[in-house]
Amino acid sequence: MQRQRIKAGLAFGIAGFVAAFSIVSFFFTFASLNVKYLLFYVLPATVAGTISGGILGAAIFDKEETRNVFRAASHGVLTAAFSYIFFWPLFLGPSAIFNNNDTALNNFLSICAAIFIGTFWTLPFSIVCGAIVGAILYYA
Question: From CA 136, how far away is CA 123, in angstroms rounded?
């Protein structure tokens, strides 16, 4: 079971990296892409995908629970959606620390806007990536 958790964590971590890097490179051209974007957007997505994959993704290897590829893909979707619980604190924590010149209300409104807009912009892409990873892990 431990080896399955590691495999699932790595697979969902790679998927988080690919999804976040694709989204960041879509919104920011490679000319303006610098280490700050990779550190604040891609690293939290990779860590969140690894954590959620290790917690929930290992169940995809259980052939009794996931009887077919569609159930594995739906489990991958749930794992990708679950990763947002870990992503937002990892993303907003450093952002709040380095953006300390605003008022508390302004920071709170910025955080709420980032969660609302960011989730609806990135969640569909993450769900597709989660379904693909779930299907791949079912056949692995």
Answer: 20
> DSSP secondary structure string, 26-90?
HHS-TTT--HHHIIIIIHHHHHHHHHHHHHTGGGGG-TTT--SHHHHHHHHHHHHHHHHHHHHHH
Closest Cα partner for 43 from 81, 23, 82, 13? 13
One pLDDT digit (tens) per residue for the chain, 140 residues: 788 899 999 999 999 888 888 877 777 666 566 676 677 778 888 999 999 999 998 888 888 888 899 999 999 999 988 888 888 888 777 766 666 666 666 667 667 777 776 677 778 888 888 999 999 999 88
Q: Which domain holds residue 90?
A: 2-139
Neighbouring residues of 39: CB distance < 8 A, sequence distance ≥ 6: 94
Helix (H) or strand (E) segment spanning residue 8: helix 2-27
Place of tokens 């159930």: 71
Q: The tokens of 70 are what?
A: 């569609």
Domain count, the chain: 1
